[in-house]
Model the fold of this input.
Amino acid sequence: MIQLINRRNALRTGLLASGGLAVLSQLGKAASPLTTSKEETNKAIVGRWFTDFWGKTCNLGIVDELAAPDMLLRYSLHKPRRGRADIKAFMFGFRQAFPNLNFWGAADLIAEGDNVVGRWEGGGTHTGPAFNDFIIGSLPAATGRKMHFRGTTVLRLKDGKIVEEIGLDDGVTALLQLGLIVKAG
Amino acid sequence: MSKEENNKAIVGRWFTDFWGKTCNLGIVDELAAPDMLLQYSLHAPRKGHADIKAFMADFRKAFPDLNFWGAADLIAEGDYVVGRWEGGGTHTGPAFSDFLIGSLPAATGRKMHFTGTTVLKLKDGKIVEEIGLDDGVTALQQLALLKAA
Done:
């Protein structure tokens, strides 16, 4: 950080020394544009959502802030959820069962129009109560089983709120790790 | 035409001619970069024109009615295009051992129909990377390669 500040100061000093006011204003325009595109705004919202909803330290207040009132949350491993209360209940139950649950972005977000695509990875350890939110089957309490897997999610936003979050989990990896599916034959 | 629109047009042709009902493997020479990486969660990764053609030729020998199609608008930014798709086929051909999880003996008659999401990376009008996530839980249960514990 100190290096960054020093570099920035050096750059500024250099520019001022050269008397390049026009150059400086152009630099300012490029570095901090006055208008941010819809895609950039949407990516910033999804970045906050990934951190505060899916990250290590979950803050469910983010649901009231960033989720549209009738938001649809649908991942391939889980039953779909709709609306703020249902979405909070989903994450609350998920973290009760997997207290160290943590997902994070694995690549740059891709955004066009109302859509933002995130590739992620993460998981957790099942040390909590019995869990029956996986479509495929239930876990009894405290199995101690760990899951670590990847996925891709498409989020749709409208007026700065998330209206839809549709994700595909690498369920084969996760469910084999959790012992909820087995190879057949 | 923006780079994104151009890339989407290329991916649209790729989905039709590589993954669609009537496959034309000549599309690989036309649209794939020489060292293109093709990686789907159900399959071992493939690299380069010959390997990618072999993958699709074998997949269609095992599943002759194989057909995948776009299920939503493509999403593009910069060098990336994201496609959501669905499709499948019926295993009426020879034994198939390209699924990572296990092998199918010849002509099981089993059908698979599933969805997925793919991120493609393009450079200079060629596809350099195609990385896809299959809904493998659905496909592999249908093929009886996996079952609920």
